[in-house]
């Protein structure tokens, strides 16, 4: 592992180290902080792209342009944003013809992620991608990625074929993840019934509204099924500040009794405080979020490269820095310390 250059901390008699040669981070309302940890950083393995095209799982040019940005592009962005370490969220979107083919796709992606980690010491960690509609392949991926390859958690989507996180169908995998005390990173996808290549509402990209609803549905279903009570050693991250969940929390407490089974208001409050939330955005002002969740459960995330660099640098970061709901100390935790408490292994990647 490479040596970390030291960065001065204003008003302190000690010095801290910037991970992997990252540029010194900018000030947080007059304070200096250690390099940020990006918990929402997309990754499309070039080896997987070539393999998927070869097997006619995707068409050449089908993926968005940002999916072709590589590790060097990522490092350049991270240095500009003051990010020391990014946790890679693998994307390998395709309809696989068999469980064996899915395992091959996951193997290729994990191998590529590990090569990025080796090539850029201290700059990257990675999640294991799971496909919960294939329980056998998911169980294998958990054992392989968490048990053998050093992944820091797993990544799942909010729903698979309309079956949302929290559904009892996924209990075997969640039980296995619970044994690992795993971090389960979630991400939205298209809403059930969405037509490939077409937005739900003409002219409005699905990521603008539908993705937030997808995350909200998954969170509410996990609350309804008491997922975090039944699997108490899991840590679940909700992206994009939890979607609409913080805004509908009072509604869920008041009207959850109409769900089947009825949702206890105390369970709503308990789960909201147990979930983690990343800041990938731009996100709305955080006052509503902090009315329901502790600040130490908020994690920094950029959504790069799905979110272009100018969106992160010119909109999301300045808004987060200026948000009056966060104190400087809370921002320091969001940028780094909260992630280290959740994933201590990030201090030694």
Instruction: Give unreliable regions as ranges.
Output: 1-25
- The helicity comes to 25-40%
CATH topology: TIM Barrel
Count of discrete alpha- or pi-helical segments spanning 4 or more residues: 12
Radius of gyration: 20 Å
Order of helix and strand elements from N to C terminus: EEEEEHHEHEHEEEHEHHEHHEHEHH
**If classified by CATH, what would the architecture be?**
Alpha-Beta Barrel
What is the oligomeric state here?
Answer: single chain
| Beta-strand share of residues | 15-25%
Q: Mean pLDDT, as a whole number? A: 91
Describe the biggest sheet?
A: 8 strands, parallel
**Name of the CATH homologous superfamily:** Metal-dependent hydrolases
The SS-based structural class is alpha/beta
The rough form would be described as globular
How many individual β-strands?
A: 14
**Total separate domains:** 1
The spatial strand order of the largest sheet comes to: 5-6-7-8-11-12-13-14
Give the class-level CATH name.
Alpha Beta
Distance between the termini: 8 Å
Could you walk me through the main structural features you see in this protein, from its secondary elements to its overall organization?
- By secondary structure, this protein is of the alpha/beta class.
- The chain has a single domain, classed as TIM Barrel (Alpha-Beta Barrel).
- It contains twelve helices and 14 strands.
- The strands form four sheets. An eight-stranded parallel β-sheet has the order 5-6-7-8-11-12-13-14. Strands 1-2 form a two-stranded antiparallel sheet. Strands 3-4 form a two-stranded antiparallel ribbon.
- Strand 7, helix 4 and strand 8 (153-157) form a beta-alpha-beta unit.
- Helix 3 runs parallel beside helix 4 (135-145).
- The longest helix is centred in the first third of the chain and has 21 residues, at 99-119.
- The chain is globular and about 50 Å long.
- The model is unreliable at 1-25 (pLDDT under 50).
């Amino acid at each position: 592992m490479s040596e970390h250059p030291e960065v001065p901390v204003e008003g302190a008699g000690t010095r801290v180290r910037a991970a992997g040669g990252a540029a010194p981070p900018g000030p947080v309302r007059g304070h200096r902080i250690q390099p940020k940890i990006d918990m929402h950083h997309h990754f499309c393995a070039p080896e997987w792209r070539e393999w998927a095209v070869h097997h006619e799982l995707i068409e050449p040019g089908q993926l968005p342009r940002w999916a072709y940005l590589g590790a060097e592009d990522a490092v350049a962005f991270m240095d500009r944003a003051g990010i020391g370490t990014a946790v890679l969220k693998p994307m390998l979107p395709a309809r696989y013809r068999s469980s064996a083919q899915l395992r091959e796709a996951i193997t290729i992606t994990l191998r590529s992620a590990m090569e990025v980690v080796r090539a850029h010491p201290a700059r990257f960690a990675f999640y294991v991608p799971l496909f919960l509609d294939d329980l056998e392949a998911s169980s294998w991926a958990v054992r392989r990625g968490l048990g053998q390859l050093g992944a820091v958690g797993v990544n799942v989507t909010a729903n698979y074929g309309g079956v949302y996180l929290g559904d009892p169908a996924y209990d075997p995998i969640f039980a296995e993840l619970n044994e690992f005390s795993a971090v389960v990173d979630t991400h939205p996808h298209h809403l059930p019934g969405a037509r490939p290549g077409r937005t739900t509402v003409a002219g409005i990209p699905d990521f603008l509204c539908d993705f937030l609803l997808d995350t909200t549905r998954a969170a509410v279903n996990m609350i309804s099924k008491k997922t975090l009570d039944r699997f108490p050693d899991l840590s679940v991250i909700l992206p994009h500040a939890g979607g609409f969940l913080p805004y509908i929390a009072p509604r869920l407490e008041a009207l959850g009794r109409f769900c089947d089974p009825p949702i206890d208001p105390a369970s709503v409050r308990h789960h909201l405080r147990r979930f983690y939330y990343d800041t990938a955005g731009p996100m709305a002002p955080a006052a509503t979020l902090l009315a329901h969740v502790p600040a130490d459960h908020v994690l920094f995330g950029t959504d790069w490269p799905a979110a272009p660099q100018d969106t992160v640098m010119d909109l999301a970061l300045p808004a987060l820095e200026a948000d009056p709901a966060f104190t400087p100390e809370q921002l320091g935790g969001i940028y780094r310390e909260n992630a280290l408490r959740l994933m201590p292994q990030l201090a030694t990647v």
